């Protein structure tokens, strides 16, 4: 391991939250919009998953905005309304970014992207075609 | 989900904890959670302590600085003035994540004040 | 900034782009207003703005080349989502207004050329701009438009032809207090600075370094492009100020329409001067419009962790291409509805000035963060420069809107 988690305590706010997230093929998945800790009786809390998604971001601005964004996503959202989660055990390396042992094709990070392409971009001349795994 | 967005299972969200004001057992303000220190153990990430106080924020902005950024000096000054607590996990009550508390009075947190011994991170 | 070219060509293109890309609606309008109202007295504001922009651009390019992160990436990383959201929200609003003013500038150039109202041209200009982004590579957008923008050097040539009193011009490069209309004087100064140190330029430059594949071996090119290119670009704007000072100031003319600015170059070059002005306005504003639209997409895409690159096909990240596809026609609307392009320009410059501190202040942190910049961070001189620019940005931000109300057009 190299970077923040190799030499000092890992700082969850500075070194994990808001960092870019890459899959095992170095495709960008998004950013760590949320990080969940599990509270355990008599034991220290531990990280369980990182979360990516607009609803998670909205909740960081205000709880009301988060609820509104969630309702919007459930009603009108592109693809699955719930945010994307990756288990903490998938985190392989932390430098300036988070590197996961995951494949973007296995998650729904690109749902909005695919929806915009299918409903809008695809109809504009010269948009090009998407690759199989996009 | 609680009214403040935390899941009702025993989970708390780091992004919602950061910046939250912490109070002691008597209700006196201790400071705001500016950082959470953890240790990576194999595939796990275990929380060690919660860093409370403005020194941590200043350190976050200038911690990596090897140059003359004013934030590094402000962070060092804040530490020398002991504006930071590093509170072990077992002293922090997160049963209501919107209102985190320490399980003792503020005066009992003196041993956890840092006075500039770890500025280099 | 593209890799794959010989270094000398990269340097030459970078400098030419810096020169040709400097003048746009805001810097042209504010320079001409300054010359018309205060003769050479506000030359110092141009110099100050250009020096600050060159310094910030050099740092943004260096940061990106070393860390392989853009400034916006790092702002979200280090300052968190709330600060990024504030910065992005304000930046996007300002970008929208400035983009409207640039599209308006192109539309007005077409009105001058054809006689048909700028309102009819606005949406067409937005569509052509969109096509250029949709089909053009980053290299084409940056270098092609920048080199074409060298036509704006007509203002510099005109200034030389007019044989201004160079002693007075030189004195104007030093700060001085106004002898009349102080509110309008300082408003014009603030607008010039806002037109020069545009945050979107810093975002664009930083993103361009990543698009161009810059690394530590490009630090010299970065210094030349930012320093020499942008500094020389400011001389073009100074040329516009001198021409306005020589022609408009003796007439005590208040400049509040682009049609008046169109009278400048014909005074020097005759009929050719008119077409030079039309070409200058159209190309400069078109290029700035492309940069603004891309900057908006970079601002959203980088902060939210999307795939972003002008060189990827639009289908590769539909979110990124959707941003500029929607933004361009929206920005054309105010112009199509009849808002005066010059008024939109001057208002947006004041807002740009007011938003400066948000993008400048993070440099104090980022350029010293060894995780990002390693041993290539700022020394004491660089930090002092950023501190002074931050102070200037703070003062400008506080006074911009009040001065707009007190003394603006």
Characterise the protein shown here.
The complex is a heterotrimer of chains A (134), B (121) and C (409). Chain A is an alpha+beta fold and 134 residues long. Chain A has 5 helices and 8 strands. In chain A, the strands form 2 sheets. Chain A has a 4-stranded mixed beta sheet, with no helix packed on it. The longest helix of chain A has 14 residues, at 63-76. Chain B has a 4-stranded antiparallel beta sheet with strand order 2-3-4-5. The termini of chain B are far apart. In chain C, 78% of the residues lie in helices and 0% in strands. In chain C, helix 1 runs parallel beside helix 11 and helix 3 (43-67) runs parallel beside helix 9. Chains A and B meet through strand 1, helix 2, strand 4, strand 5 and helix 3 of A and strand 1, helix 1, strand 3 and strand 4 of B.
Q: Which residues of chain A sit in consecutive blocks of at least 5 with pLDDT less than 50?
A: none
Distance between the termini of chain A: 29 Å
Biggest beta-sheet profile of chain C: none
What's the quaternary structure here?
A: heterotrimer
Helices of chain C, by number, come to: 18
Helices and strands of chain C, in N-to-C order?
A: HHHHHHHHHHHHHHHHHH
Residue runs with pLDDT of under 50 for 5 or more positions of chain C: none
Strand content of chain A: 25-35%
**Element string of chain A (H = helix, E = strand):** HEHEEEEHHEEEH
- N- to C-terminal separation of chain C? 38 Å
Could you tell me the number of beta strands of chain A? Answer: 8
Helical content class of chain C: over 70%
How does the overall form of chain C come out from the CA principal axes?
Answer: globular
Strand element count of chain C:
0
Overall pLDDT confidence of chain C: 89
**Separate helix tally of chain A:** 5
Order of strands in the sheet with most strands of chain A: 3-2-8-7
Short structural summary:
The complex is a heterotrimer of chains A (134), B (121) and C (409). Chain A has helices at residues 4-7, 12-16, 54-61, 63-76, 111-119; strands at residues 10-11, 20-22, 28-31, 34-40, 43-52, 84-87, 91-94, 98-100.
């Amino acid at each position: 391991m190299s970077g923040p988690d190799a030499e000092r305590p890992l700082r969850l706010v500075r070194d994990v939250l808001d960092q870019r997230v890459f899959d095992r093929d170095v495709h960008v998945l998004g950013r760590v919009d949320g990080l969940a800790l599990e509270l355990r009786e008599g034991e220290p809390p531990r990280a369980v998953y990182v979360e990516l998604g607009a609803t998670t971001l909205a909740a960081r601005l205000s709880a009301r905005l988060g609820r509104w964004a969630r309702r919007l996503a459930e009603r009108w959202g592109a693809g699955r309304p719930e945010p994307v989660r990756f288990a903490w055990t998938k985190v392989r390396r932390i430098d300036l970014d988070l590197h996961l042992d995951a494949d973007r094709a296995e998650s729904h990070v690109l749902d909005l992207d695919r929806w915009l392409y299918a409903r809008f971009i695809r109809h504009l001349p010269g948009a090009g075609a998407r690759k199989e795994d996009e | 989900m609680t009214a403040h967005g935390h899941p009702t299972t025993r989970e708390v969200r780091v992004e919602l904890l950061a910046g939250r004001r912490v109070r002691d057992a008597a209700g006196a303000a201790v400071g705001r959670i500016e950082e959470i220190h953890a240790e990576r153990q194999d595939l796990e990430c275990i929380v060690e302590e919660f860093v409370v106080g403005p020194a941590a924020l200043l350190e976050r902005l200038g911690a990596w600085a090897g140059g003359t950024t004013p934030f590094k000096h402000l962070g060092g000054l804040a530490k020398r003035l002991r504006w930071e607590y590093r509170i072990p996990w077992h002293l922090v009550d997160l049963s209501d994540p919107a209102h985190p508390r320490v399980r003792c009075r503020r005066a009992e947190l003196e041993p956890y004040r840092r006075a500039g011994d770890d500025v280099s991170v | 900034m593209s890799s794959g070219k010989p270094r000398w060509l990269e340097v030459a293109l970078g400098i030419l782009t810096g020169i040709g890309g400097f003048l746009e609606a805001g810097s042209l309008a504010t320079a001409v207003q300054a010359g018309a109202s205060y003769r050479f007295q506000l030359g110092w504001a141009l110099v100050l703005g250009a020096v600050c922009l060159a310094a910030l651009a050099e740092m943004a390019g260096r940061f990106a080349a070393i860390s392989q992160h853009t400034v916006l990436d790092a702002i979200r990383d280090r300052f968190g989502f709330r600060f990024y959201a504030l910065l992005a929200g304000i930046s996007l609003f300002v970008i929208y207004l400035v983009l409207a003013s640039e599209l308006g500038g192109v539309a007005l150039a077409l009105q001058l050329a054809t006689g048909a109202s700028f309102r009819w041209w606005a949406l067409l200009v937005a569509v052509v701009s969109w096509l250029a982004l949709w089909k053009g590579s980053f290299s084409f957008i940056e270098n092609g438009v920048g080199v074409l923008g060298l036509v704006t050097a007509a203002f510099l040539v005109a200034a030389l032809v007019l044989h201004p009193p160079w002693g007075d011009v030189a004195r104007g490069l030093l700060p001085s207090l106004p002898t009349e209309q102080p509110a309008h004087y300082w408003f014009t100064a603030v607008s010039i600075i806002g037109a020069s140190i545009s945050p979107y330029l810093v975002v664009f430059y930083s993103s361009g370094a990543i698009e161009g594949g810059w690394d530590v071996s490009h630090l010299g090119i970065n210094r030349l492009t930012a320093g020499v290119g942008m500094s020389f670009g400011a001389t073009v704007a100074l040329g516009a100020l001198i021409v306005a000072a020589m022609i408009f100031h003796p007439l005590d003319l208040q400049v509040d329409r682009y049609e008046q600015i169109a009278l400048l170059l014909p005074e020097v070059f005759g009929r050719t001067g008119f077409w030079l002005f039309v070409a200058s306005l159209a190309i400069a504003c078109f290029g700035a419009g492309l940069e603004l639209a891309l900057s908006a997409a970079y601002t959203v895409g980088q902060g939210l962790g999307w795939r972003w690159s002008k060189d990827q096909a639009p289908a590769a990240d539909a979110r990124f291409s959707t941003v500029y596809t929607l933004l361009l026609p929206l920005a054309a609307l105010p112009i199509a509805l009849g808002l005066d392009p010059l008024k939109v320009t001057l208002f947006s410059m004041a807002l740009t000035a007011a938003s400066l501190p948000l993008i400048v202040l993070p440099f104090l942190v980022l350029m010293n963060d060894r995780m990002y910049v390693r041993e290539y961070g700022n020394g004491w001189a660089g930090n002092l420069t950023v501190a002074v620019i931050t102070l200037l940005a703070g003062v400008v931000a506080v006074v911009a809107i009040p001065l707009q109300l007190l003394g603006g057009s």
